[in-house]
Amino acid sequence: MKKKKITSFWVAVIFFVIVIYLSQRGVINIDSQQIREFIRSFGILGPMVFMILNVLSIVFAPLTSLPFWVASLALYGFWPTLFYIFISFQGGAIANFWIARRWGRPAVKRFVGKKGFQNVDEMTEVVGLPILLLIRLIGGASSDYVAYAAGLTNMKFKPFFLITLFASPPAMFLNVYIIDQALDLKPAYFVFGVVGYLLSIFIPLWVYQRQRKKLKQ
Fold it and tell me: 172 exposed, middle or buried (CB, 10 Å; 0-12, 13-18, 19+)?
């Protein structure tokens, strides 16, 4: 009986991830309310389901985690959601690193798609500890790709993990804060957060682009 429940749990989660993917591709329609109800239906296991969904959105990089974050904020509030995101982000980053390290480019291409793999491939040319640190501070979709890129290089796991662990929280906090303020309809805090977030992206991104140009010369 217990084995059947575990199997049913994973079948439900995987099926829902497929539904979310099709929704983001415009094949079917699903809103944040439905995602919220799906997570809520698992009761006390809801946070674990949210973290699994978040990990899968990192591993399958074409997926966006935003609908999951919105649902978790509505269900659990700011601080619990931030904690769940932090834990699942570490899990997703570690998974991406070892998928790339163990199975190489063919496996990465299957997980991120052709367009995503171009981003990964470009990052392998420039990624090192300074660039990894920069991207972790920036946050965003590039954070998913850089873990794959790092796994395809000779970067050691320990520094990769430590940078991911300690450099990712600031951008993560800011992202969740902005979404939370937007949901609570607090325009002043929202605008302040957006301006700060944009500065935190464009300044490091400018440094990153300059580094890429130098390495290509």
Answer: middle
Q: Is 141 helix (H, G, I), strand (E, B) or coil?
A: coil
The phi and psi torsions of 168 (rounded to 5 degrees) equal -80, -30
Q: Which residues contact residue 190 at a Cβ distance below 8 angstroms, ignoring those fewer than 6 apart?
A: 178, 181, 182
Contact 21, 57 (CB under 8 A): no
Structural contact between residues 92 and 61, judged by C-beta atoms closer than 8 angstroms: no
143-158 pLDDT, tens per residue? 888 999 999 999 999 9
Tell me how crowded residue 62 is: count the other CB atoms within 10 A of its CB. 15
Could you write out the DSSP letters of every residue in 14-30?
A: HHHHHHHHHHHTTSS--
E strand or H helix at 181: helix 169-183
Question: Phi and psi for 121 in degrees, rounded to 5?
Answer: -60, -40
**Domains of the chain by residue range:** 2-216
Give every CB contact of residue 173 below 8 A, 6+ residues apart in sequence: 82
The terminus-to-terminus CA distance of the chain in angstroms comes to 62
Predicted TM-score (pTM) of this structure: 0.81
